[in-house]
Design goal:
Elements: E1 10-15, H1 19-22, H2 30-46, E2 51-56, E3 91-95, H3 106-112, E4 117-123, H4 125-138, E5 142-151, H5 155-169, E6 171-173, H6 175-185
Parallel strand pairs: 1-2, 1-4, 2-3, 4-5, 5-6
Helix pairs in contact: 2-6, 4-5
Organism: Ferrovum myxofaciens
InterPro entries: Isochorismatase-like_dom, Isochorismatase-like_hydrls, Isochorismatase-like_sf
Protein name: Isochorismatase family protein
């Protein structure tokens, strides 16, 4: 379902837009994803709504069929993209699994602020973004996806998340649609 509304207490979650990840090849240019996420962050800040900037520094310990390289980031690879213009009031969070809610206290922190809805952007669509969205939905948050402010390394995985998974978890919209809705409902 296309975006219809934003709750009065909506937070922005920006997933893994950090140096080591935005340097990887992606379906859509990472620079454009960062630019759009930064525009969303600025709009949320302008309306005094929470901005959560998430980075990742580890992986879950379980076995997988695909080889992993947990030390794959170059030095400084965990640093958030400068374009996000991190502000003192932003919530910053380091995760060690795919999803931002797992063992981080994010659920309690957002609910403590009265947040009932999250808008999600970031990389990778089918991993960090989708895992975070599934948890948010299961925890009772309304979920909106900024579909032009996310990308993946795998085009099929990106397409599957955007077209098949996300409509079952929430609403989708473009950065412009989300910002316009913020501006029109919080004037």
């Amino acid at each position: 379902m296309a975006i219809t509304t934003l709750d009065p207490n909506t937070a922005l979650l920006v997933i893994d837009l950090q140096q080591g990840i935005i340097a990887l090849p992606t379906v859509h240019p990472a620079a454009e994803v960062v630019r759009r996420a930064a525009a969303l962050a600025e709009a949320f800040r302008r309306h005094a709504l929470p901005v959560v900037l998430v980075n990742v520094t580890g992986v879950a310990p379980g076995r997988t069929e695909q080889p992993r390289n947990p030390g794959a980031f170059p030095a400084g690879g965990e640093k958030l993209a400068a374009e996000l213009n991190r502000q003192p009031e932003d919530i910053t969070l380091t995760k060690r699994t795919w999803g931002a809610f797992t063992n981080t206290g994010l659920d309690a922190q957002l609910k403590g602020l009265g947040v009932t809805q999250v808008v999600i952007a970031g990389i990778s669509t089918s991993i960090g973004v989708e895992s975070t969205a599934r948890s948010a939905y299961e925890l009772g948050f309304n979920v909106t996806f900024a579909i032009d402010a996310m990308t993946d390394r795998n085009p099929d995985a990106h397409f599957n998340s955007i077209t098949r998974i996300f409509p079952r978890l929430g609403e989708t919209g473009t950065t412009r649609e989300i910002i316009d809705l913020l501006d029109s409902t919080r004037a």
